[in-house]
Design goal:
- It comes from Aminobacter niigataensis.
- InterPro entries: ACX-like_C, Hydant_A_N, Hydantoinase_A, Oxoprolinase-like.
- One of its GO terms (molecular function) is N-methylhydantoinase (ATP-hydrolyzing) activity.
- There is one protein chain.
- This protein is α+β, with helices and mostly antiparallel strands.
- The strands form eleven sheets. Strands 12, 13, 14, 19, 24, 25, 32, 35 and 36 form a nine-stranded mixed sheet that branches. The chain has a four-stranded parallel sheet with strand order 5-4-8-9, with helices on both faces. The chain has a four-stranded antiparallel sheet with strand order 26-29-27-28.
- Helix 10 crosses helix 12 and helix 12 crosses helix 13.
- The longest helix is centred in the first third of the chain and has 31 residues.
- The relative contact order is 0.10.
Length: 663
């Protein structure tokens, strides 16, 4: 829980144990934050509710109604596999089993011409079956409905006549795009999550209002914006990547405060690390994501790469005798060996504790760590099998973890045509600040930024976003043949849809913004790139030029002489919210406070342990400079400042470390 006092700009952090009812957990977190509900101006939060529901299949019964012959589209998938070489690995089951996928005779051709209207007798028989099964949630997914929704709308009308009050999602409303597998699956996911998200949002809002909160409950969605509780009911699948988006948003905010438009986000927690890239102030967005492989959700989402590297990731020896790190994790139970809760396999946390980088007391002294237990596990599992001493083994564990994270950063940067040397690394999460400088050295990143509260930086991201909706429509034509009047009119229709959505969420017109995008591709290609365009389009020359440049950067391939095709248009409708602001402090040249202690620490740069001062971050003023070697402790994280590195505290209390590369 992250509480920001608008008057002072100070952040207060609170953590509470997980509760069986997530709403109880939210309310207890607010209580622990020391703020009354009536005093809250803006409440926004990310949730894993939708993600967990999809993974566990814990959602209300639902029915999919589709065109005869297309019942198994979402089970056949694309025929690809998560692990291409493991033919025995079972794929996850579809969100709806075959018995819950019903068919009706209807057909629309590729151009939108109605070949066969909905067979009403079959439609009413389906309604009888749905009534008998007592199902209240229906997804209607007809082939080619993206170009003409007439038959889907007729099927909906019949079901509403026969089943008053049933909740119905149309694929032509949810995702009006070609590629039926992606469209069908997004609609199905949205349908099964609608009751889950709707009930959660409504109940949370009700309980908070009963306690005195007078504003809207805002839920963070995959695209980096928020929805009201009402909006979450209709577009629930957008919550399936709610949690990870917040860290990327906060990372961009921190880097821009520190003066960097280009940044790479390293959000390292206990089990995993989330990595994203911000270029020239813009976070990368993708339409190609999933909770489980094979079941895509095509709502726009901030592009975040997650790998199994966290403080609790296990170090182990594979069958070929190589040292590995993760993705297996000790989890919260039993946790790292040093927690003395029954863990037996060494983790990154154990290595950091043994090397002195992490103290033996965490969370303000509430958690005590046992170095001897960590040393024994490292020695038994890694040092002895590899013929190393224990210290060398601990260093090796962390080097492998850093190498895994560096490879992931290369995937979001170098693979996309970006040079890490042009970026700042924002390291946060409970463990990010322990590894930031080492990772920057591996990747030749020149500067590392540590937010004021690394452990709750993702929560801060929830206070930095607006209400957003992404409205799309297929629009296929070559650039040379497009009628600009027709194109502008198509955009206006989408903008009107966005305006209606925002009005339904009580957003006044003066708080609305609309940004247009055109998806372009080379004629004959399948995949496209989204290019922003102006409000009133007179020609697409500048957009085509940008498309060639972006295509060349990301794919190392560009053909300026080749014909370009428009395949989709999109409008991002934004309702502006109040944003959090960090307090700005005057830079002072004052003596450093005395260290709160010392300990012997082994760094990568030194052949032996060094007596290292430990500072309390809360005592470091704006303008303070801590010269490494040093350790900076705080309630929610620990910062490692290696020898030769200076940690400078800026006016927003962000710690900035410039990283010269070792020769």
């Amino acid at each position: 829980m992250c509480v920001l006092n608008e008057a002072s700009g100070k952040i207060h952090v609170a953590k509470t144990p997980t509760t069986p009812d997530p709403i109880d957990g939210v309310l207890k977190g607010i209580e622990a934050g020391g703020v009354a509900l009536r005093d809250i101006i803006l409440f926004s939060h990310g949730t894993t509710l939708a993600t967990n529901a999809l993974i566990t299949r814990r959602f209300p019964p639902a029915i999919m109604v589709t065109t005869k012959g297309f019942r198994d589209v979402i089970e056949i998938r694309r025929g690809t596999r998560d692990d291409l070489w493991d033919t025995y690995k079972e794929m996850a089951a579809p969100y709806l089993p075959r018995r819950d996928r019903l068919v009706v005779t209807e057909r629309i051709d590729y151009s939108g011409k109605v070949i066969s209207e909905v067979n009403e007798a079959e439609a009413r028989e389906l309604a009888r079956v749905i009534r008998k099964r007592k199902v209240n949630n229906v997804a209607i997914c007809f082939v080619n409905s993206f170009v003409n929704p007439e038959n889907e709308q007729r099927m909906r009308d019949i079901l509403l006549e026969e089943l008053p009050g049933v909740s119905i999602s149309l694929s032509s409303d949810i995702m009006p795009e070609i590629f039926e597998h992606e469209r069908f699956n997004t609609t199905v996911a949205n349908t099964v999550l609608g009751p889950v998200a709707g009930q959660y949002g409504a109940e949370l809002e009700s309980r908070m209002q009963d306690g005195g909160y007078s504003g809207e409950v805002l839920l963070l969605h995959s695209g980096g914006g928020v929805m009201t509780a009402k909006g979450a009911t209709k577009f629930a699948a957008r919550l399936a990547a709610s949690g990870i988006a917040a860290g990327a948003i906060a990372s961009r905010f921190i880097s821009e405060l520190a003066g960097y438009k280009n940044s790479i986000s390293l959000d390292m927690g206990g089990t995993s690390t989330d990595i994203s890239l911000c270029s020239d102030g813009h976070l990368h967005v993708t339409n190609d994501w999933h909770v489980e492989y094979g079941y895509p959700i095509r709502f726009p989402s901030i592009e975040v790469l997650t790998i199994g590297a966290g403080g609790g990731s296990l170090a182990w020896r594979d069958k070929a005798g190589a040292l590995r790190n993760g993705p297996q994790s000790a989890g919260s139970t039993p946790g790292p060996v040093c927690y003395n809760h029954g863990g037996t396999e060494p983790t990154n946390c154990d290595a950091n504790v043994f090397l002195g980088r992490l103290g033996t007391k965490l969370a303000g002294g509430k958690v005590e760590l046992d170095i001897k237990l960590a040393e024994g596990a490292i020695n038994r599992v890694i040092a002895e099998p590899f013929g190393m001493d224990t210290e060398e083994a601990a260093l090796s564990i962390l080097k492998v973890a850093n190498a895994n994270m560096a490879d992931a950063v290369r995937l979001v940067s170098l693979r996309k045509g970006y040079d890490p040397r042009d970026f700042a690394l924002v390291a946060f999460g409970g463990a990010g600040a322990l590894h930031g400088v080492a990772l920057a050295r591996d990747l030749y990143i020149p500067v590392v930024l540590i937010p004021p509260n690394p452990g709750v930086t993702s929560a801060l991201g929830c206070l930095l976003v607006d209400i957003t909706h992404d409205i799309t429509q297929m629009y296929t034509d070559t650039v040379s043949d497009i009628d600009m009047t027709e194109l502008n009119n198509a955009f206006r229709v989408l903008e009107e849809d966005g305006r209606d959505r925002l009005l339904s969420e009580d957003i006044s017109p003066d708080r609305m913004l609309f940004q247009r995008y055109i998806d372009m591709r080379y004629l004959g290609q399948w995949r496209s790139m989204s290019i922003p365009v102006s409000a009133d389009i007179t020609n697409l020359d500048e957009a085509v030029k940008q498309f060639h440049e972006e295509h060349g950067r990301e794919h190392n391939y560009s053909r300026p002489d080749a014909p370009v095709e428009v395949c989709r248009i999109q409008v991002k409708a934004t309702g502006l919210n109040r944003k959090a602001e960090l307090a700005k402090h005057e830079l002072r040249k004052a003596p450093l406070p005395a260290p709160i202690g010392q300990r012997m620490v082994r760094f990568d740069e030194a052949p032996q342990r060094i007596k290292t001062p430990v500072y309390d971050r809360s005592t470091l003023h704006a303008g303070a400079v801590v010269e490494g070697p040093a350790i900076i402790d705080q309630l929610d994280s620990t910062i490692v400042v290696p020898p030769g590195i200076k940690a400078e505290v800026d006016e927003y209390l962000i710690i900035k470390m410039h990283v010269p590369q070792l020769s």
